Amino acid sequence: MKTLPENFLGNIEQWAAEFGFSQLAVTNIDLSQHETHLQEWLDNHYQGEMGYMAKHGTKRSRPNELEPGTLRVISVRIDYFPPESTSIQKVLGNKNLGLISRYATGRDYHKLIRKRLQKLVDKMQKEVGEFGYRAFTDSAPVLEKALAEKAGLGWMGKHTNLINRSAGSWFFLGEIYTDLPLPINKSKPENNCGTCSACIDICPTKAIIAPYKLDARRCISYLTIELKTAIPVEFRKAIGNHIYGCDDCQLVCPWNRFSKASDEKDFEVRHGLDAPQLLDLFNWTETEFLKKMEGSPIRRIGYMQWLRNIAVALGNAPYSELIIEALKARRPDVNEMVVEHIDWALEEIAVSRKS
C-alpha cells in the first residue's frame, strides 16, 4: 500500500478546483445500506425498462467488485445551470414552447467531466506515481448519488436528487475509484429537507410516491428519455410541454435559492433550446436533428423518440390550425409509435376545441 505525502488530499482538492470542479470529497466503499435500498427498488420494478439497473448484480453497490482493488472513491460535483437562460417558469407558462431539462440545453457533460477527471488523475500520478484507478460519470454501474452523499457532497432529497446546502441540486457528479488509501471525509451534512414536501407536491405525474422513493415508471424524465416505446396514455396530459426530461422538482426546492449559474462554456444554451418553439422543433428533418443535436445528450434518444415527445406536447398546446397541419403532414413519414402519439394529439386538440 502506497504511503501518501502529507496533505495530499488538500492538493487533490486544489487541483480539482483548478480543473473546474465545484467540490471534491472522499469516501470508503461500504454501500451496504444503499444496496438494500436499491434491491427493494428493483424488487418493486420501479426501474421500468431500465434493465441496466439490475444487469450488473452487486457490482453497482460494491465498488471493489466493479473495479477490483478499489479502496476509496473520490467524488466530485460540477455546477451546470446554464447562465442567461430563459426561466423555466416562463417556458412552463407558454404551452407553445418546449421544455428541455436544463442539464441538456448545452453540450453533453460526459466527455467534459471524464477529461477533467483524467487530468486530475494525471496530476495525482505525477506526485505519487502510478496507482490503480477508474473514472466515471454516469457511464457505468455506479451508485453516484449514494457515493456522493456518503462522501459528504450533500444529502439525498425527498425527490432522490442530491442537495448541497450552498449549491442546491443543479450539478453533475463524477467519481474516481482508486486503490490509494486516501483519508476519508468524516463530516457529513445533515438532511435538511425537514417537513418540506414541495418536490412531492409539484410532480405532475406523482412519480415521488413517498419521501425518498421514486417510481421511475411515472417520472417525466424516464418517460421522455429512457422509455423507448409508447408513453402510457395516463401520463400524456400531465407531461404538458416537457419534451426532454423534467426539472419541476428541482425548480421548487428551496435550497436551489443558493445555486449559482455555471461559468462553463460547454453548458451554455445552444440552438435556443432553453425556450424553443414546438412547431419549429417538430418541423426539423432527421438531418437537421442529427446536425443540431451533435454533441448534445439529446441526440441519443433518436429522431423518432424526439418527434414522439413533441407530438405529445403539441397535443397539450392551445388550439392552432398550424399545429393540426404540422401533425397531419408528419404522419406519413414516421413510424407506428409516433403515429400513435400524433393521432392522440389530434384527438386532444379536437376535444379541446369543443370544450
UniProtKB/TrEMBL annotation:
Annotated tRNA binding sites: 228
Species of provenance: endosymbiont of Galathealinum brachiosum
Self-association state and partner proteins as the record states: Monomer.
Function: Catalyzes the conversion of epoxyqueuosine (oQ) to queuosine (Q), which is a hypermodified base found in the wobble positions of tRNA(Asp), tRNA(Asn), tRNA(His) and tRNA(Tyr).
Cofactor annotation remark: Binds 2 [4Fe-4S] clusters per monomer.
Subcellular location(s) of the protein: Cytoplasm
Active-site residues per Swiss-Prot or TrEMBL entry: 138
Catalysed conversion reaction: epoxyqueuosine(34) in tRNA + AH2 = queuosine(34) in tRNA + A + H2O
Protein's pathway: tRNA modification; tRNA-queuosine biosynthesis
Gene assigned in the entry: queG
GO BP annotations listed: tRNA queuosine(34) biosynthetic process
Protein name: Epoxyqueuosine reductase
Main location class: cytoplasm
